[in-house]
Specification:
L-amino peptidase D-ALA esterase/amidase; 26% strand; globular; Ubiquitin-like (UB roll); 29% helix; homodimer; alpha+beta; eight-stranded mixed beta sheet
């Protein structure tokens, strides 16, 4: 695992406020790692609504299957462990989720059906859930409202920094809070961008409203990032709404079309976008944050496919790592996407400097000027197709030797 | 560019026989490289049939467009240059192909429509075709039947060894010969597996027969390899049949269904398979040749998609580089392929040792034993899905720090 923090880590980490109705605690259960926390328990008040979106892998992890089956009811607890993904663990995996939920339910004083689970780490190794015995009971007793950074740290695997985001917004006339956390940092590709993320709010939203917010919110955030084109078996984004702000007068929202939801929906999406960008900023071995913008495509969907083709191209990503504005490789990635594109209408720019237009090198293109901007830690690749009004944006990072080092020496 | 030869290079390089009706010559035209040959001229006798398959990129190179337009007639000359792909070069690119063909036609004494072109190297830089002036005339004069290794060397870019293959087979009662060459070594993914390859035979085949042999021949050879999932703008596979063996009594074949073609078709496919494997063996930075076999899929096409998902996964490829039998990542890649798969029926083996069965770790799996076989330079990953009879096989290589080094410092 990489010891040094990504140079792309945000410099302004927010103070995370409490969310009424949510308490957190972390511990070192010894799942896999030594000398660090690896289990998070979040305890929610009665009446907490829950929603979730998950990996589209055909081989999902046991916790993903567990959560899918439990959606639609309320949530009282969330247990997250790092170090072991409890994926491809067969019957043992299902037993481990049931046992974990049972231990958590007893510790919190709720039904196992109100316990949500997420696991991240190595695939294919049995998860010894008996390690949670005792640990979760202690965590339930010590859980506190202000443990957000500790929580975000406990769920890390190869992440080099904890990822949190917060927003406050008015719902009706009442101030409500949204807190989120996420972990990356490899095996990141839609859909659903692979990682774990948990968002909490005190807003009184129904599960259906929360699910609707999640579904529309991920489209241009977590589903618009990719690290390495690999889709995890464990991708999980859960949102919890305790409804505690109703005590302060916040209106209960039970329809996604409720106009009072508008500002909240925007703030919610901003939190998702913030976390998703942090995941891209902490891609394994990342030294550059890469924003790919495709415009002039026939449709937004077509623009997304082309942007993803560029963002997933090893040759584009290694060129960025080498600070080389190799727009020829961008052309290659446009060409292989299989979407409508006319070579002779294509324009490409790096960080605002156009290097190619009308299917050939831009005559005014100055290599030295471009070389200079390629040193920036953030690189924007903009491709104008000149065909229509379809536009999209995805985030990724460069592909460095460190990525190979991290992933060639992860399990052993 | 990597200086040392891939450890996966074949140890037994064949002596390449002459092909009646084909002469070759190479030169250093100074396209881009210093101190090495970078242009190949092949001169074919009158009456030579030609067939070709090309990249499916929506942004193909100028030579690809040239060749596509010239198919269906005969061929008298092939000009290949390395160092510059003449791709995304706009009108200048089209002018460069026309000029090159015109210079070659004059040198050889044929029509420009009988000249085939291929370029490989950097994308987006104008190709100065005037550099061929004089050079091609000299090459046409000095062309000789035995320059196969020199030819295969002149077309290399980041390849670490020249790739040739040969076969002799009876057509009717006459011995005919098939010679092929190819270059890789990055931006290799179907369809059409990205590279340049040229195959020559003295068999008297019509263009239609040759095209049919190519089309069916590439499916499980060049279209079944991937280095990095990136599809070149320049992929070109051309086949030439001089027909000279007709003088020795070989029958003229004008229908692909002709039963006399059977042994030839097999030998032809073997040459393609041999060259394709050499391309995988010389993938940029490759230290392991990886054979992915998927069986028990619902269809062959489904097996191909799953095999490609595994072969293109950076996490699987880095694990192989790290000599880690990380079957969890293989599960991930199966899951992300989007094809029918039942986690609980999946079995996975590395070099014959089964590590997972029925959706979980194989109880008899011995880590030390598997670690030992992972040191082999050739790794076979076999996935049994247990659903149907669909089977497929693809070749790839591992993903190493050297790949990143080669591609992070290619253009500059």
């Amino acid at each position: 695992m990489s010891a040094s923090v990504s140079p792309l880590a945000p410099t302004d980490v927010p103070d995370m406020p409490a969310i009424a109705g949510v308490k957190l605690a972390t511990a070192a259960a010894g799942i896999r790692y030594k000398g660090r926390t690896d289990v998070l328990l979040a305890v929610m008040d009665k009446g907490t609504a829950v929603a979730g979106v998950f990996t589209k892998s055909k081989c999902p992890s046991a916790p993903v299957e567990w959560c899918r089956a439990k959606l639609g009811r309320g949530a009282r607890a969330l247990v997250v462990n790092s170090g072991n993904a409890n994926a491809f663990t067969g019957k043992t995996g299902r037993q481990a989720t049931a046992l974990t939920a049972s231990i958590a339910a007893k510790a919190v004083g709720c039904s196992a059906n109100e316990v949500f689970l997420a696991s991240t780490g190595v695939i294919g190794e049995p998860l010894d859930a008996t390690k949670f015995d005792g640990v979760l009971a202690t965590l339930a007793e010590t859980a506190a409202p202000d443990e957000w950074m500790a929580a975000a740290t406990a769920i890390m695997t190869t992440d080099t920094f904890p990822k949190v985001a917060t927003a406050t917004v008015k719902l009706g006339k009442t101030k409500v809070t949204i807190n989120g956390m996420a972990k990356g940092a490899g095996m990141i590709a839609p859909d659903m961008a692979t990682m774990l993320s948990f968002v909490f709010t005190d807003a009184p939203l129904s599960s259906a409203v929360l699910q609707s917010l999640l579904k529309s919110g991920v489209e241009d955030t977590f589903n618009a990032i990719t690290i390495d084109s690999d889709t995890s078996t464990s991708d999980t984004l859960l949102a919890f709404a305790t409804g505690a702000a109703a005590d302060d007068g916040a209106p209960k929202i039970s329809r996604a079309s409720d106009p009072r939801l508008k500002a909240f929906a925007k703030a919610f999406q901003d939190v998702l976008a913030n976390l998703a960008e942090q995941v891209a900023r902490d891609g394994e071995g990342a030294r550059k944050l890469v924003e790919v913008i495709v415009e002039g495509a026939t449709t937004k969907n077509s623009a997304r496919k082309i942007a993803m083709s560029i963002a997933n191209s090893p040759l584009v990503k290694t060129a960025i790592a080498g600070e080389d504005a190799n727009w020829g490789r961008v052309v290659m990635a446009v060409g292989k996407a299989g979407e409508p594109a006319n070579r002779d209408k294509l324009s490409i720019s790096f960080n605002g400097i156009r290097v190619a237009k009308s299917g050939a090198r831009d005559p005014s293109y100055n290599e030295a000027e471009v070389s200079e901007v390629m040193k920036n830690p953030k690189i924007q690749i903009k491709v104008a197709l000149g065909l229509g009004k379809g536009r999209d944006r995805v985030l990724t990072c460069d592909l460095t030797k460190e990525y190979v080092a991290i992933n060639g020496d992860y399990r052993s």
